[in-house]
Amino acid sequence: MLKQPDQLEDIFLKVREGETPSRDEIIFMYEEADLNVLGEMARKLADQKSGNNVSFVSNMILNYTNICNVRCNFCAFYRTGKESDSYLLSSDQVLAEIEPYYRNFHITQLLIQGGVNPDLPLEYYTTLFRSIHERYPDLGIHGLSTSEISFIARKEHTSVPDIIRELVDSGLQTIPGAGAEIFSDDVRKVLGRPKGSGQQWLDVMEAAHRLGVKTSATMMFGHVEEAYHKADHLLSLVRLQQKHHGFVSFTPWNFEPGNTQLQRSGLVKYRAGGADVLRNIAISRIVLNNSIPVIQSSWLTNGIQMGQMSVLFGANDWGGTIYDEKVIPATGKQVGNLRKDAIIQGLHQIGFNALERDNLYRVIENYPA
Ligand code: SF4
Description:
CATH superfamily: Aldolase class I
Bound molecules: iron/sulfur cluster
Radius of gyration: 20 Å
Largest sheet: 4 strands, mixed
């Protein structure tokens, strides 16, 4: 049995030397470690990586369709295509949605995601990305999920690398980490994800990394997972990162149960509390510090104050302004739009410099505290 605080000090020194905590050490941090000590350790490590700076991106999320044939138990967003509020946007409708945000807020990242819509061929995506890229060449397209990419490959009877190449040739710049949830098949079965889909996520990401395409990584916690599932998830990311160094950031985000099958069935009654959110942020920093040094606060589900606390517990990226997001509101939780000046103010309030970055994490502007 590991004992604190000596064991936490040992873990801290190990990470400072460039190592990754073991599975047992990660489980210990989840189940037994003192939260305040974890937070202090995590912030010290973040300080060494990025000092007093926290980055953010001016972006919008565009959910191009809510029609999806995967039907996850944790999702309140999808529709089967038969409901009156099912939708699919054309390229022209997508351009019309982007226009006001591009003109008024100078967004530099477009996060574009939808359901796995069985009717959409590769050509829908290539046409869409080309039209966006032609109209807004300086807007980085951060798009699709591994599920969408795998489905397009199956539909087109071709390989995942070929699909990624076609998408990148059409304007896709990077791939978001959505769909990772928890890799364990036991957990994914409860979440309504197909068997093997965790490994599929890793395989699609590896294919992208081999092609030189940068991607993000995520983990969804606060549902039916145990500490060892999260330890295994984080260590899988470390192993893949050691191969190609293709992940540019990691976001641990908490499950929003409202309007989902998981809540209706009584398996998850409420969302994770603040202490749980901060523990996940701190452990992510400690475990991934030497492999994925950008840890993003998930302010979208937790609000500005928890975003600030996440920074104090080891996050060094705020994420984005996220104009027009539709997935979280489907759970009944209203997030609103977070303007750039609110992010800058939020970071200044806790004594941090705000660094505006683009989709490839290049600094555009520094707003000192
Ligand atoms: S989470 Fe994604 S893949 Fe799952 S049902 Fe919702 S839209 Fe479909």
